[in-house]
Design goal:
Layout (H helix, E strand, L loop, with lengths): L4 E4 L5 H12 L9 H4 L4 H9 L3 E5 L5 E10 L2 E9 L8 H15 L4 E7 L6 H6 L3 E2 L7 H12 L5 E7 L5 H15 L6 E3 L5 H10 L1 H4 L9 H10 L6 E6 L6 E11 L5 E8 L8 H15 L5 E6 L4 H9 L3 E12 L2 E11 L2
Length: 354
Amino acid sequence: MIEVRLRPATLADVRRMVDIEIAAAKLFPTEVLPEAVGRTGSQEEIREGIASGLAWVAEAEQSLVVGFLVAKTIGTSMHIVEMDVLPSHGRQGIGGQLLEQAIAQCKVMGLREATLTTFLGVPWNAPFYTQHGFKVVSDVGHYPHLDQALQREAARGLKERVAMYRNAAQPGAQADLQRSLGCMLRRMIDYPALSFFCEHHAEEFAQAARQSKALHRPWVHPPTDTATAAELARKRQGPADFGFLVRDCDSTRIAGYVEITNIVRGPFQSGYLGYYVFKDFERRGFMTWALRSVIRHAWKELRLHRLEANIQPENTASIALVRTVGFQREGYSPRYLKVAGRWRDHERWAILVA
């Protein structure tokens, strides 16, 4: 099994992902996958998966992207839209690692199962998924989205297609999940329960913020209603502002939030870091893991040179946190930001790319 690093896909990966999809399609016999279909990549679906935080890439040596998986949520299911591995890196365990990442995220999001459609007789399709716990759907009438997908594929000329599912809570799946999360802790650029903040998380986010009011005051005031939380998520989809959710893998609850905002390019290449933990998860190490992961993401994916965090001097826990992950105090800014209707002093902390 080749050692790869999984990370969330970004828009900068789209072209490479399409190229991998087209290269992988060449392996299929034209009897089941018409050549005209195989020459076109699903760029729109890839972009949608990235926007919803349900797209991952596998990086091998020299940060070369060699595989990817794109999914979307449909009701209580996570539907795997596309998964491909570069032919030169096939049969080395990369597809299995991508699948386990999707199943782990399925569990974190509280979804019931993962679904997909695939070729029945191609060895690296249905037989491969069977080895990873997927079962053929005997009656697609119970899964309208799978029925519709098979009909669309037939209309495009795809033959011998079958729908499959894997129950996220099936016997043995929990052990698979824990094993995959343990592996991801070692190899992913992001903490395994770290995902992009999207609109469909708004209600859950607002509820966590309401429950954490006493913990957050007077330092931060996250949105406590769904509409405002959804607006925040919309504003954190790039290219200058990004939001990330931190989840507890055991309970699947949101444990914290991290954001990089006001990114300035050109000779500056800098952004601002904000963060807060939610009730029941404070002082348990979640935010240390999350900040380190987001910092790595800032260097590797966003190509930033500097991150700055401005913290009220009395917020000693926050200051201790940034100091732990490598920030250094650069200065003091009187009446720097208006918080809860008052202009408040802040210490200025920053970290530079190593």
